[in-house]
Amino acid sequence: MSDSIFEVEYHPGKEVVLHFKSPKFQGLPDSTRQHLVVVRKEVLLALRSMLDRVIEKTEEPEKTKEGKRTRIKVQ
Question: What are the backbone angles phi and psi of residue 2, rounded to the nearest 5°?
Answer without folding.
Answer: -100, 180
